[in-house]
Design a protein that fits this description.
With 161 residues, this protein is α/β, with parallel strands linked by helices. It is built from six helices and four strands, in the order βααβαβααβα.
């Protein structure tokens, strides 16, 4: 499996082109490709917006992961009757986001939407601690995937699974 995120193509056109090339090579080799949308508005400064670039990348992916802001800011898909800032988040409403993504990108075999909300400041702290531990594990996984991605992009053979 090869994984990319929405941060790398946001940094520059060159990195965006490398992401697309890597995705296409991975698909040619029969690998599963995942994309964590990871929308970061401040990074998109090279002349194109996420909504102009990410559809071309996602249309070649098998798995998409994102949160409510990613779907809204990147693809203009917003769950009806929700307001994350006001704490109005209902998981069932996000089925609309998943269905809309599947309709736009029929190639996607799996779509994950993560939801965030807060109950109280102390609850937020507990959730943040758990997320930091999970993020540390994911960082190691992403590093492994990036090493594999680099090997794939450079035509080097990947180690057996």
């Amino acid at each position: 499996m090869v994984s990319l995120d929405g941060i790398t193509p946001a940094i520059s056109k060159g990195l965006c082109d490398v992401c697309l090339e890597g995705i296409l090579k991975a698909k040619d080799k029969g690998l599963t490709v995942s994309c964590d949308l990871n929308y970061r508005a401040k990074l998109w400064k090279w002349g194109k917006k996420a909504g102009e670039v990410m559809p071309e990348l996602v249309k070649h992916c098998d798995i998409a992961i994102g949160n409510e802001e990613d779907a809204d800011k990147v693809f203009g898909i917003k769950a009806p009757d929700t307001d994350v800032n006001a704490g109005k988040v209902e998981a069932a409403k996000y089925l609309f986001v998943v269905e809309s993504l599947k309709k736009r990108f029929p190639n996607l075999k799996m779509i994950a939407v993560t939801l965030r909300g807060s109950i109280s400041a102390s609850h937020k702290h507990v959730v943040r601690s758990a997320l930091r531990r999970a993020q540390a594990s994911m960082t190691l996984l992403c590093l492994t995937l990036r090493i594999s991605w680099t090997a794939l992009a450079e035509g080097m053979p990947l180690p057996p699974a």
